[in-house]
Amino acid sequence: MNAVRDIRQLPKAHLHLHFTGSMRSSTLLELADKYGVHLPDALTGGEPPQLRATDERGWFRFQRLYDIARSCLREPEDIQRLVREAAEEDVGDGSGWLEIQVDPTSYAPRLGGLIPALEIILDAVETASRDTGLGMRVLVAANRMKHPLDARTLARLAVRYAERGVVGFGLSNDERRGMARDFDRAFAIAREGGLLAAPHGGELSGPASVRDCLDDLDAARIGHGVRAAEDPRLLRRLAERGVTCEVCPASNVALGVYERHEDVPLRTLFEAGVPLALGADDPLLFGSRLAAQYEIARRHHAFTDAELAELARQSVRGSAAPDGVKAKLLAGIADWLAGPPGGLSGALPGTRSTA
Questions:
Q1: Residue 101: beta bridge partners?
Q2: Which of 212, 332, 344, 350 falls between 20 and 30 A from 157, CA-CA?
Q3: Does residue 216 register a pLDDT over 80?
Q4: Mean pLDDT of the 40-50 span
Q5: Are 152 and 186 in contact, with CB atoms under 8 Å apart?
Q6: Which residues, 6 or more positions from 332, have their beta carbon under 8 angstroms from its beta carbon?
Q7: Catalytic residue set
Q8: Residue-level pLDDT at 336
Q9: Cα(186)–Cα(236) distance, rounded to whole angstroms?
Q10: Three-state SS for 339?
Q11: What is the pLDDT of residue 163?
Q12: pTM beyond 0.85
């Protein structure tokens, strides 16, 4: 194998990581034991569960596993541990900036209410950022399975805490449910409050869901967005507007959106000029973290080191990081590319061939 630069040493920003889904498997096992939660075999086997969410039954199974894992987060110290470990994992993968995505309503019943839950999360993020040196902020996400009025409440709360570390507003869960336009007022509230709009679209649903995010929610970023590759006109629109797609290759394959890593249209998006930010999505369920996504681009899509560096630049430019942080990360990317290759190309967790 040819010598290549170490992907973990490449500075990058991580823009698509869900809160519970960021948990270490070992941490889930310990918390489940602590609270007497029975975990299904899919969460205890040491290997990522076999998932396929392209139909209703498959999505329900995925969501059920996620909900069981979330039920193990019950005390502020659990939240603090999860956030600290997520930051540590990102630092190890070369991330200099992380925007972790959370719907605080999911944690409110056990943490004393919606506002206390968000404050506990933000305090944990501030502490982890200080302790690890990782730039870290929060993207509050509404659940499209719930009523749009709930999303408006969350948007107002997110704006209220913009000075405490909330930088964006999202819309998650099964994008085949709930029309984007139903949430337009919530996103207007968020944008008017200075937050970045980053709804999910274009993974389980096709290009139309990406267009809806652009037309109805004025999205600055799209969570996933890979199905835009099926519409050349939409690709041009994304490129012209500079809308970053938060592409998560490992989860696309794990959920059955594409059969093989080679089928994920990374090349199509990249060569069309669509800004990309590779993300790990839910490492707990998909078995791979941030650096592994770059290894997938290298191993399965023949991205050169120069192209990987450009992916990292696009992730930084698409982030909500302050200008000074962006400048530092971009300089680090240039240094990485200017340096000599070192080490051998080797598979990271979650990058094994599916051919």
A1: 18, 139
A2: 212
A3: yes
A4: 75
A5: yes
A6: 11, 96
A7: 203
A8: 98
A9: 27
A10: coil
A11: 95
A12: yes
Whether the predicted pLDDT of 354 surpasses 50: no
61: left (phi over 0), alpha (psi -120 to 50) or beta: alpha
Q: Residues 33-38: contacts with CB within 8 Å, 24+ apart?
A: 34/72, 35/71, 35/72, 35/74, 37/68, 37/71, 37/72
Cβ distance 229 to 275 under 8 Å? no
Query: For 283-300, how does the pLDDT look when each residue is reduced to its tens digit (9 = 90+)?
Result: 999 889 999 999 999 999
CA distance 154 to 175: 18
Listing DSSP states for 87-131 in one string gives HHHHHHTTEEEEEEEE-GGGTHHHHTSHHHHHHHHHHHHHHHHHH
For 53-80, write each residue's pLDDT tens digit. 665 566 778 888 899 999 999 999 999 9
Could you tell me which residues come within 8 angstroms of residue 106 by beta carbon, excluding any fewer than 6 positions away?
20, 70, 143
pLDDT at residue 104 tops 70: yes
> How does 54-66 read in b/e, with b if 16+ C-beta sit within 10 Å?
eeeeebebbeebb
> Cα–Cα distance between 276 and 270 in angstroms, integer?
7
pLDDT value at 348 more than 70: no
CB 53 within 8 A of CB 62: yes
In one letter, which amino acid is 183? Answer: F
Please name the amino acid found at residue 77.
E
Distance CA 102, CA 118 (A): 9
